[in-house]
Amino acid sequence: xxxxxxxxxxxxxxxxxxxxxxxxxxxxxxxxxxxxxxxxxxxxxxxxxxxxxxxxxxxxxxxxxxxxxxxxxxxxxxxxxxxxxxxxxxxxxxxxxxxxxxxxxxxxxxxxxxxxxxxxxxxxxxxxxxxxxxxxxxxxxxxxxxxxxxxxxxxxxxxxxxxxxxxxxxxxxxxxxxxxxxxxxxxxxxxxxxxxxxxxxxxxxxxxxxxxxxxxxxxxxxxxxxxxxxxxxxxxxxxxxxxxxxxxxxxxxxxxxxxxxxxxxxxxxxxxxxxxxxxxxxxxxxxxxxxxxxxxxxxxxxxxxxxxxxxxxxxxxxxxxxxxxxxxxxxxxxxxxxxxxxxxxxxxxxxxxxxxxxxxxxxxxxxxx
Length: 369
Ligand SMILES: Cc1ncc(C[n+]2csc(CCOP(=O)(O)OP(=O)(O)O)c2C)c(N)n1
Ligand SMILES: [Mg+2]
What we know:
Shape: globular
Helix content: 40-55%
Largest sheet: 5 strands, parallel
Strand content: 5-15%
Bound molecules: thiamine diphosphate, magnesium ion
């Protein structure tokens, strides 16, 4: 198993996350605890050997695109141009960017949560289609009818406003691949830590293993539900490892802030699914830098805590890898940042100038029996 690029059992990096919020300190020690994660480490040399320089720089551009899209989308929201909910993927960019570059944009089937802008962008939605969707414009990704939580591509089945909704959906997608004997293809479904206590998650794990479905289950553990720290919601941490054991499923835990580690794990997990036909659970541990949604001021963590968290910015970590390889200089990095910023500003202008759907289209796309 270790001829791949992930040296899982050999190089385990143990990391303890102290989860103590000052606010909760006052409430009592019951509210604080520590969790030790056994992170699988990737070998950056091997990862960059697979990618090569051009693709490695493309990955950087993708992460910068997501970051800028999310920041500007929030800005547009605050300016009253975007309605409904808005959940930013800022801080988690390395995870889905690594998944898509390790598994490829075509062929596999994907599903995720309401925090869905990044995956849609990675799988082919143009920034203009995405921004117009946020603005509710007719040329948006879902014709302006879905908004922030409902974005799709040919092989991405949402964007789902229902917490936990995408677990069973992912298993259904995997079942369809198995049923049609589409060898080599898998379904990948992302969900938040907050959905793991739900019945639907456990029913899905049971059926996925019982029926040997080609399913990659990715728990994006950003350590918070809406505002609840994971240790206040779950009795048996770490999540992925423990759950996987009870269903006999292979699992990996990975530092979700590090693209190289994530890339290696996604590659290795894919090989496992292909070889055994069984599902895999991956727990990617990271942070979200913003509140749960735009209306959440995130008062449950202090400025200092957030600052500390942001020192592990996945884009920073990734850019440092590239600098160490001499594949990018500081000034080239700044140039690329500016290019993505300009691209998204142009996208906002485009969305501003686009038309809202015609009132006469109101009944289109509605099922009437
Ligand atoms: C079935 C259901 N219950 C409750 C909600 C309200 N809700 C929206 S997000 C959320 C927390 C989810 O946290 P997590 O799964 O960790 O995802 P994250 O937002 O951290 O990415 C809740 C309770 C919902 N949308 N759907
Ligand atoms: Mg969460």
